[in-house]
Structure formats: structure tokens, C-alpha cells
Amino acid sequence: xxxxxxxxxxxxxxxxxxxxxxxxxxxxxxxxxxxxxxxxxxxxxxxxxxxxxxxxxxxxxxxxxxxxxxxxxxxxxxxxxxxxxxxxxxxxxxxxxxxxxxxxxxxxxxxxxxxxxxxxxxxxxxxxxxxxxxxxxxxxxxxxxxxxxxxxxxxxxxxxxxxxxxxxxxxxxxxxxxxxxxxxxxxxxxxxxxxxxxxxxxxxxxxxxxxxxxxxxxxxxxxxxxxxxxxxxxxxxxxxxxxxxxxxxxxxxxxxxxxxxxxxxxxxx
Length: 269
Ligand code: SAM
Known about the structure:
By secondary structure, the chain is an alpha/beta fold. The protein has 2 domains: 2-153, SPOUT methyltransferase, trefoil knot domain (Alpha/beta knot, 3-Layer(aba) Sandwich); 170-269, tRNA(m1g37)methyltransferase, domain 2 (Trp Operon Repressor, Chain A), CATH 1.10.1270.20. It is built from 11 helices and 9 strands. It has helices spanning 10-17, 20-27, 64-75, 96-103, 120-125, 142-153, 163-168, 201-219, 221-224, 231-242, 245-266, and strands at 2-7, 32-37, 50-51, 61-62, 84-93, 107-111, 129-132, 186-187, 190-191. The strands form 3 sheets. A 5-stranded parallel sheet has the order 2-1-6-5-7, with helices on both faces. Strands 3-4 form a two-stranded antiparallel ribbon. A two-stranded antiparallel ribbon has the order 8-9. Helix 4 links the parallel strand 5 and strand 6. Helix 4 crosses helix 6 and helix 8 packs across helix 10. Bound molecules: S-adenosylmethionine. Residues 87-90, 112-114, 116-118, 132-134, 136-141, 144 line the site of S-adenosylmethionine.
């Protein structure tokens, strides 16, 4: 998959894109992220990319000419076919579902704004989509672009070693994932649930699925509306509610905190 990113700060994205999973995906030829500095597409002596807003007011606005020139030059005949995504806090909310949608595409382009944002004509006549990574405002579109690239790239077949694990990730099937544990099995007296050490994969899968349902009801009940729950899942949830397991979670958390505090006091931490 090819992604073209248009930014004033390619250097802040470089390291992240060449590290760990994204770096390996690019070396393996599964992903090709090209960073384009918008300033390289200016034509004046001062290489100007922003100007004061018409109508006054504070802040600067990114000029349309260099952004149009950059996107048109790089996309060439692909213009009109390749989605051009403007990162903006005013866009549709980015989610795992949108990441899945985008991961099916062979190519996409991302435009990162700065300052007060970009000239409105970029949104109207160049961008084909607008994405926001959340209801807050950052200083630039580089972190939002990295967020989109990262979430999309890990869905490209072959990028993650274990695609089965990916299917269980939070938000993939409308549920939050079950808790994870690793060695040691006893840490500061806190034991790993016995079932995980049993070697009985049927029981382990059932436990994990139940934990996943439990976490979702407690933390994000809103997600359950979209999740496709089987009759079996609905029965598990009904039983957890009946047994008050769900309400007990808060109490358990409080107890865990007290235990942790006690351990620290006893061990002079
Ligand atoms: N004045 C703009 C507004 O109120 O909508 C915000 C501009 S913001 C300071 C500068 C740039 O950061 C934006 O053009 C956009 O590219 C990026 N940005 C900031 N927050 C974002 C978010 N939540 N999602 C996506 N991009 C964001």
C-alpha cells in the first residue's frame, strides 16, 4: 500500500515511520510511505506556505497554491482516483472501522495542516475526505497522520506476525480485548488466573471471551450496541449481571489498589 503525506514537518514523522513494525513493513515492501515537504512546492523567494486570514483575526492560514501544487504533482494521473484525506478536527471521527475501510485501498494521500489550518478551498476542491482523530485540537496534522498510517498499516496482510491476535484486538469485533499476563506467574504475591496456566485451550478461550465481554460491559457498554452478540454471548452477559459479577468489578479494583499500597508500605517503596 502506498501513502503520500503532505506536511511542513516531514522530519518529525521520519523516525516513527522507520522504526519497529512500520519500518519492517516498508523494508518488506508491504507499505510505502512517502513524505513530501509542502515548502518544496512554493515558488516565491521566501518559500512562503502561510499568510494572514482574510477578514482579520489571529493566527496564520496555510496557503492553497503550494498544497495544490504538491498534491497534483505527486498524484499526477492518480488525481481523482486516489483518496486525498485532509486531517482536521472537523472531519469524520477516525475509528478501527475507518482504518479497516482504508486498509483495503492500494493508495491514499494525507494532508497535514498547521497554524489555524488550511485555506478552505483545499477542503472544498482538493480533499476527498476529512478525518479527525478525536475531539481535541493538536498543533498540527502530523500526529493525526501517523495515527492513521499506523492503524491502517497494521491491518495490511503480512504486516503483523500474528494475524489471529489482530482479530482479537479491541474494537475489531466490537468488543474490548481480554486481559493479558506474562511471566512471572506470581508477582509480589499477585497470581495469574489459574485457568491461563492450565494448558486447557478450550477453557482458556472461553475465559478470555468471557473477560472480553465483561470488560466491554463495564468500560464501554456503548460498544455492545454495535457488536454482533451471539445468543450464547447474551446468555453469558445475562448471567454475569444476575451473579452481580459486573458490579463487583469496581469493588475488586478498589481491593487491588489497597493491596498494592500495602505491598509498597511493607517493602518501603
Ligand atoms: N483552527 C482549526 C479548527 O478549529 O478547526 C484547528 C487547527 S489545528 C491548530 C492545526 C492542524 O492540526 C489542523 O489543520 C489539522 O491538520 C491538525 N489537527 C489538529 N487537531 C486535529 C484532530 N483532532 N484531528 C485531525 N487533525 C487535527
